[in-house]
């Protein structure tokens, strides 16, 4: 994403994670997608990408919030310009491209800057996601978002007919994330601590797949879900 997608602002940081209230979703009153929208989420290193890739290989359209976030922050975009005006010229490098590493490191240590970033980028992300959802052609669509269930992205979960959570143990998450990312183990742990707990995420899910094993075990859980989603009948909106 434009910064580390696994970060979000938290006004109640002194409250233990499992005891935090989860904000109710903000409803989009005038937006409707005639295809079932399956929200896909999970913690860092949980295997969300492997799941979305599997659905894509089955011919299912995938709208990825991370990809959208990059799209809206391309060189010369209005959203990037607004961010430069709010935070400063250092947001972009010499070529005019967003300096994603600099922004990520800055907002990780500065909650005010993170709130500014969110206030500028999230409306643009949500609008582009709605644009892409309105153009899907497959029988259903996967909406993949790392923070689908967190408070500031609640506007996205209201677009979903079902929520699929990819669950993995914290040990598995840390092992996967540290092996693929350039971030330190301590930073990955900080990201995990700033996300919903596994319990809170699973409690809000309609469907859960366990991804502590290999891909074969994961795919075996996805096939029946795919068949169920194909049979899902969405009521028309009048």
Short description:
This protein is α/β, with parallel strands linked by helices and 238 residues long. It contains ten helices and five strands.
Folded structure, characterized:
The protein is α/β, with parallel strands linked by helices. It has 2 domains: 26-60 and 139-233, Rossmann fold, CATH 3.40.50.300; 66-137, Rossmann fold (3-Layer(aba) Sandwich), CATH 3.40.50. It is built from 10 helices and 5 strands, in the order E-H-E-H-H-H-H-E-H-E-H-H-H-E-H. It has helices at residues 48-57, 65-72, 78-87, 100-109, 111-133, 154-157, 170-180, 185-193, 198-203, 215-231, and strands at 37-42, 61-64, 141-144, 162-167, 207-210. Strands 2-3-1-4-5 form a 5-stranded parallel β-sheet, with helices on both faces. The longest helix has 23 residues, at 111-133. The chain starts with 36 loop residues before the first strand and ends in a 7-residue tail after the last helix. 32% of the residues are buried.
